[in-house]
User: Fold tRNA modification GTPase MnmE from Sulfuriroseicoccus oceanibius.
Amino acid sequence: MSGVAGDATIAAIASPVGRGAVSLIRVSGADAFGVVDKVWRGAQSVAEIPARRATLGRIVRADGSETLIDQVLLTRFDGPASFTGENVVEIAGHGGVLVTQRLLEALLEAGAKAAGPGEFSQRAFVNGKLDLTQAEAVMDLIEAQTDLALRAAHQQLDGGLGSRITAMQDDLLGVLAHVEAYIDFPDEDIDPDTRSALISRIDRLRDTTSGLLETHERGRILRHGLRLVFAGAPNVGKSSLLNVLLGYDRAIVSDVAGTTRDTVEEVVNLGGVPVRLIDTAGLRSSGDEIEHEGIQRTGKALASADLVVELLDGSVPLSEQERVQVPESVKHHLVALNKSDLGVADGWDAFGEDAVRISCTEVDGVEPLIAAIKREVTTSASALDATPVAINARHRDCLQLVSSELASARALIDLGEEPEFVAEHLRAALNAAGEVVGKLDAEDVLGKIFSSFCIGK
Ligand SMILES: Nc1nc2c(c(=O)[nH]1)N(C=O)[C@@H](CNc1ccc(C(=O)N[C@@H](CCC(=O)O)C(=O)O)cc1)CN2
Ligand SMILES: Nc1nc2c(ncn2[C@@H]2O[C@H](COP(=O)(O)OP(=O)(O)OP(=O)(O)O)[C@@H](O)[C@H]2O)c(=O)[nH]1
Ligand SMILES: [Mg+2]
Assistant:
């Protein structure tokens, strides 16, 4: 995929195949109108139709046979005023799997090239219609599983992150220009006033950077879900609890201890926060090879958990139960005592209000447990209103580099080092900030990002 403006005209099915009443095919490229004209039969040619007006006509094969494929609505967008910035034609067909496939084939026969994954968005990016954070937001939007995640994606698509980075680049450029001015006059040292002014400008930039970095945790949770792990001894009811929270029988439940082997994951929406519920194999020492592997996986799930719900069987005395070793990295830990329908055995009073009593079979006490989970969850993912930004892992990597380069630049100014050395770090910081929005020439980086998109995007 080269993705350079003015390249071949590309075509792809933009709607899910076979599931809609209407399917959408997009064609983009300098010769999009000419290519589509070969298969379009209407009162006017594509170039004569008023731009952006859906027009009824027919699509036929391009092999000269005039074989009818579908009656369609066609819309023309004149570059640069289009999604990709190129000439674009959209064809809305009847939505069947075969019809849609034949429409695309006719366009390929007419000279279009099948678009690769993300190629439309990549062209929009190359033509300056979207910066990289906005292109990524398109994907976040498609994959969003809750309204809160959707809102974060829309904010990023609206340039919420891009505009902050651009402002940061402007500031950085100002500081760099200032420092570079000294390079041209080697006899002049940076005077103390200028030095302290530069330092405070750099410090402000570092504050902005760390403010953005702090939004990564929220971004990770909104994109991938907060990781909630159910852990406990075999048979305490972890899989039962998963099923109760999901509202359907996702995991196998049985009175055989050691039923769950592999971890089972499903995402639910808790107060707008996507929560990935992870059911695990019950913890005990086991000679069974497969169960042992399952328990290893439980360990891994615990290590990457945001919240652990430790499940215990409240109908069995506390002294007879193994507690879960919750790793220190886990920020939130709740205890739930299951099987309350069987009564409460000795020793559990010690937990008092710290443990929620539930019954999975009677579906009792589940609401208070959900409320307790929600309280933990919102502290992890809230504050989207205060800073409407939620950066992803790629942004975080770039910004960490910005941060460390700024720290180096500041340290060198403090030491009274030559401006050349200071400028070098500022330039590195500027490049790293540029990478966030896609001001980079490394084609491979772009290819990697856009190829994770779906075809037709
Ligand atoms: N039919 C259709 N629906 C769609 C899309 C599409 O490509 N086609 N989109 C694809 O993701 C999204 C909408 N995104 C779009 C963004 C910009 C332009 C566009 O034509 N921009 C021009 C003109 C702007 C204007 O009229 O205000 C431009 O930016 O110059 C079109 C779609 C969602 N719905
Ligand atoms: N009486 C009673 N039985 C329950 C309750 N919750 C689960 N059980 C029963 O306890 C047994 C074990 O339940 P599971 O959900 O499979 O337990 P688990 O913790 O997933 O067990 P492993 O996968 O083996 O680690 C099943 O027979 C369930 O029906 C409850 O609230 N009350
Ligand atoms: Mg289980």
Observations:
- Confidence is low (pLDDT under 50) at residues 1-6.
- Residues 138-215+391-438 form a domain with the Four Helix Bundle (Hemerythrin (Met), subunit A) fold (CATH 1.20.120.430).
